[in-house]
Amino acid sequence: MNGIHLIADLYRCGGTAVALTQRDALERLCVDECRDAGLTPLGASFYQFLDADGDAAGVTGTVVLAESHLAIHTWPESGNVTLDVYVCNFSRDNSDRARHVYRRVLDALQPEDAVEYEVVRGSLSGEN
Amino acid sequence: MNGIHLIADLYRCGGTAVALTQRDALERLCVDECRDAGLTPLGASFYQFLDADGDAAGVTGTVVLAESHLAIHTWPESGNVTLDVYVCNFSRDNSDRARHVYRRVLDALQPEDAVEYEVVRGSLSGEN
Questions:
Q1: Catalytic amino acids of B?
Q2: Chain B residue whose CA is closest to A73
Q3: What is the pLDDT of residues B67-101, one digit of tens each?
Q4: pTM of the model
Q5: Cβ contact (<8 Å) for B62 and A66?
Q6: Which of A22, A128, A26, A21 is nearest to A71 (CA)?
Q7: CB-nearest partner of A64 from B47, B80, B121
C-alpha cells in the first residue's frame, strides 16, 4: 500500500476539448497514458453524462491498475476536471510512473489553474 | 467538482476477512454501501489477485458514482487496505453520504489503526 497519491483540481482546461466531453476519448487518453508509463491497467469504467438535449456533457471514470488506480471527472461547462493517480510500490517503486501519467494528462488538458496535493499512502506500512 | 475526498490507510483489518480476499464480497460491500447511503453507482471494476498457488490474494477496485468515485485496494497478507471516497456536491450536498459510506466500510473492515486525510476538492470553483 506504500506509495504516492497525486491529486489535482484543474480549472478552465483549454486542451483536448473532446476529452472533457467524450467518454471514449477520455478513457483512451487515461488508459493509454497509464500503459505508456509502464503501469498495468486491469480494467476501466467510464460513464458518459448527457445534457437535457441528449448531448455529451461530462465524463466520469476510473482505471483500475495492478498498481492501484486513476480517477478522473470532468465538468465541461466550466472546463474543470479532478484527477487522482495513486500507485503503490508493492513490487517496485512506481513513483516516477505515476508522475509521468499525471503530467501527461495535465499536458493534454492544459488547465489555466491547478490546485495540487500529494499524499504519501501507507506511511506506517514499511515496504508493504 | 466542489466536494470532499475522504482518504484512509487502514492497518491490520480484523473485520470481514472475506472482503479483503474475495472480489465479489468486496464489490458487493462497496456498491451496496454507496447505494444505501443514497449515492448513485454507475459502474464498478473490481479485480481479483491470485497468489502463486492460484488462491485469492487481494482485491483492487473502484465504484464509479454519479457523484464521483470510491476506490479500495486490499493487502490481505498484512490486513492493510486503502480507501478513497470522493463525492462532489454538484446538485446537492453529498458530504454526509460520503461520510456514511466511509464509516460503514471502516466498520466492516475494523482496522486496528488508521491514517486518515480529508481533502476539500474544487476549492476554487464556487458551487460548481
A1: 68, 73, 88
A2: B68
A3: 999 999 999 999 999 999 999 997 889 999 999 99
A4: 0.95
A5: no
A6: A26
A7: B47
